[in-house]
Amino acid sequence: MRRVIFNQKGGVGKSSITVNLAAMAASRGKRTLILDLDPQCNASQYVLADKLTPGRESVELNPNIGQFFVQTLSFKLKERPLSDYVHATAFENLSIIPSNAELMEIEQMLESKHKIYKLAGALKQLSRQYDEVFIDTAPAFNFFTLSALIAAETCLIPFDCDAFSRRALYTLLENIQETRSDHNDELKVEGIIVNQFQPRASLPQKLVEELRVEGQPVMRTMLSSSVIMRESHERSLPLIHLAPRHKLTEEFGALYDELQD
Questions:
Q1: What are 160-205's pLDDT values in tens digits?
Q2: Rounded distance, CA 146 to CA 169, Å?
């Protein structure tokens, strides 16, 4: 299964959800791959802290997804398969193709040479080696997120409960529908993941109920707000490895189980 985690709004927990669902899958014995397409490299830093250059804030791992795309710009180069860009993590069954901060510098060149389908073909072939593929994306509808949507089978949409997120959600759903119509007729919205949910606050409950009444595919499992997530980031340990019995970890487990239904 190839899933893209996508929202054009920033700060909704895309990388946290990507990594923790992937880590949950890997902990269940699934051969799991993370593809980081966000130039902020958050997912890469989350699981590859042991490989970072000391004193540097950015991931500098070679090869990376930026180099995969660069090679497609030249017919003189023999293209390396996407499998050559995979790095093992310290966690059993979990691998990653890291991102690169220079992704945005090559975006215009990739668009002008119509390379929008390159990732889809390469990832479809590579995904035969994995049970689960989770794709993290930047908070923008750009060349790389469109490439991810074309390459994916399903889309998961993180949603934090405020009015701005709700308005952005409708634009996002329109973009997904357009992508399905123009590029990938197998793409479907697998679910909307309510993140940082506060059950005692009236607004989040109201927004979630209204989305469900509208028929939007809101996941039954909602993710709580917790400071444990910040500690998970700081220690570069997915929750299943940091605090397997924590409430939020159990919610990720329940969410992953729901995706298997």
A1: 988 788 888 999 999 999 999 999 999 999 999 999 998 888 888 9
A2: 16
Question: What's the confidence (pLDDT) of residue 161?
Answer: 83
Integer Cα distance of 146 and 177 in angstroms? 12
State which residues of the chain have pLDDT below 70.
52-60, 76-77
Structural domain harbouring 63: 2-259
H-type alpha helices, the chain: 14-27, 42-47, 65-71, 103-112, 118-126, 143-151, 163-182, 202-213, 228-235, 239-242, 247-259
Non-local CB neighbours of 212 within 8 Å, separated by 6+ positions: 218
Residues ≥6 apart with Cβ < 8 Å to 59:
41, 44, 45, 48, 52, 98, 99, 100, 101
Tell if the pTM clears 0.90, that is, is over it.
Answer: yes
Residue 103 CA to residue 105 CA, distance in Å, equals: 5
Structural contact between residues 155 and 176, judged by C-beta atoms closer than 8 angstroms: yes
Residue with tokens 């690169």: 100
The pLDDT, as a whole number, for residue 207 is 92
Please, which residues bridge with residue 96 across strands?
34, 87
Q: Residue type for 59, please?
A: V
**Residue position matching structure tokens 């969410």:** 255
Q: Other C-beta atoms within 10 Å of 60: how many? A: 14
Long-range interactions of 49-58: CB distance < 8 A, separation 24+: 49/236, 50/90, 50/236, 51/87, 58/101
Helix, strand, coil % over all residues of the chain, rounded to 5 = 45, 15, 40
CATH number at residue 68: 3.40.50.300
